[in-house]
Amino acid sequence: MKILVVGSGAREHALARHLALAGADLVIAPGNPGTAACGENRAVDANDPAAVAALAREIDAELVVVGPEAPLVAGVADAVRAVGIPVFGPDAAAARLEGSKAFAKDVMAAAEVPTALAHVCTTQAEVADALDAFGPPYVVKDDGLAAGKGVVVTDDREAALAHAADCLAKAVGAHVVNQVVIEEFLDGPEVSLFCLSDGVDVLPLAPAQDFKRIFDGDAGPNTGGMGAYTPLAWAPDDLTEQVLERVARPTVAELARRGTPFVGLLYCGLALTSRGLRVIEFNARFGDPETQVVLARLATPLDRALHAAATGSLEELGGLHWTDDAAVTVVLATPGYPEQARTGGAITGVEDAEAVDGAWVLHAGTALDDDGHLVAAGGRVLSVVGTGATLAEARAVAYDAAGRISLEGGQVRTDIALRAERGEVTVPGPQA
Q1: Distance of alpha carbon 99 from alpha carbon 102, whole angstroms
Q2: Tell me: domain 2-92, CATH 3.40.50.1820, correct?
Q3: Average pLDDT per 10 consecutive residues for the chain, totaling 432 residues
Q4: What is the pLDDT of residue 172?
Q5: Rounded to an integer, what distance in angstroms lies between the CA atom of residue 331 and that of residue 38?
Q6: Letter string b/e over residues 56-71, b meaning 16 or more CB atoms within 10 A of that residue's CB
Q7: What integer pLDDT is reported at residue 170 of this predicted model?
Q8: Do the bridges between strand 87-88 and strand 63-66 make them parallel or antiparallel, or are there none, so unpaired?
Q9: CATH assignment of 118-183, given 1.20.1250.20, 1.20.120.50, 3.30.210.10, 3.30.1490.20?
Q10: What secondary structure letter does DSSP report for 62?
Q11: What are the extents of the domains in the chain?
Q12: d(CA 164, CA 166)
């Protein structure tokens, strides 16, 4: 199958790797130095709907897979569908589920999906009132896309007010409705559950947990994600069924009712709280770095699964099949990330890392310099994936491989999946 993968990060490298393993003929636009080993990289602006649609026609693509959120919100999927090519990814109207936190809250309210109480604020005075109503810890969310870094959770009221002011100022500068979302704090561990949707049917993938903070012990500012693992031995046995019945299916049904069917990947970001399951956020695409570990355990050919979702035939696909392995991914980030990433540093040791049995390296923010040497070109540089029969084995493989890679000043968390390996993750209260 001829497939065009849109994007340039570790998520897209993971998608390309597993599509290539399934035998797909790939073009990746624009891709990165790692995806070049999976297919042909093409220098196309991923956020330009007309350019992506033209490339899809040029290569006679049988399927287009859109990785990042920005192209979806920009309408890339709309443009490709308009030229008659199946797309795995929602149109711009449905992608508002990620593009606007306020829209997502409206959809959840209509679909009776359990989520955090929230106030949508348009002024600093409204923000102050909402913060005082909920009390600390304060949760302040940018209404629009922020690459995973638009949320601040803090006990510092002044810091919460400052982040809200930044969000409102950015919105005004972009000439859109200036609003920010203030939410109640949700206790309990977080879970990411991806669901394939063809606009009617929903098919779940394996749950995973990611690590958003930059430093060990979940300290420091939020990032796009510093690591992830699966499976979740501590999660309720019926977690996936709960999410399907209470979250994914009602949300997909509500979007269909509104005339904007959701075709693609519905990312359910969840908290398992003392008061039961709650949705933290929706995303309209595969999450990064969870994709890296979830796909590592998928036994069903990925091209078949994505094509079935894109063509309205998930029911014919049946269920997905999984290996019994565990998978852990560890992210290498540049010095200064996430506030001010310092790029350009030389990266060595990738081949040594991939020589570790059960490990592979996925490129995110990398580039080749004029001499053809690998250098850091973004905040998150590489995702190192380790697999094994147990979580402890997978974790050991991932860190063995990551330890062989060198980037001066590079940042790697040392505690990805550590508490889960030790059996220290617990779910508070009843999950009902």
Answers
A1: 9
A2: no
A3: 97 98 97 97 96 97 96 94 97 90 90 90 92 92 66 90 88 59 90 96 97 95 95 96 97 96 96 92 94 97 97 92 97 96 96 98 96 96 98 98 97 98 89 47
A4: 47
A5: 21
A6: beebebbbbbbbbbbb
A7: 74
A8: parallel
A9: 3.30.1490.20
A10: S
A11: 2-92, 118-183, 190-421
A12: 5
What's residue 179's pLDDT? 83
3-class SS of residue 155: coil
What does the alpha-carbon distance between residue 198 and residue 148 come to, in Å, rounded to a whole number? Answer: 25
- In this predicted structure, what is the pLDDT of residue 16? 98
Q: Using an 8 Å Cβ cutoff, are 288 and 9 in contact?
A: yes
Tokens 């709309």 belong to 78
- Predicted pLDDT at 7: 97
Let me know how long the chain is: 432
DSSP, residue by residue, 105-146: HHHHHHHT--B--EEEESSHHHHHHHHHHH-SSEEEEESS--
Please name which of 48, 70, 86 lies closest in space to residue 146, comparing C-alpha atoms: 70
Q: Give the CATH superfamily of 190-421.
A: ATP-grasp fold, B domain (3.30.470.20)
- Give the separation between CA 286 and CA 294, rounded to whole angstroms: 10
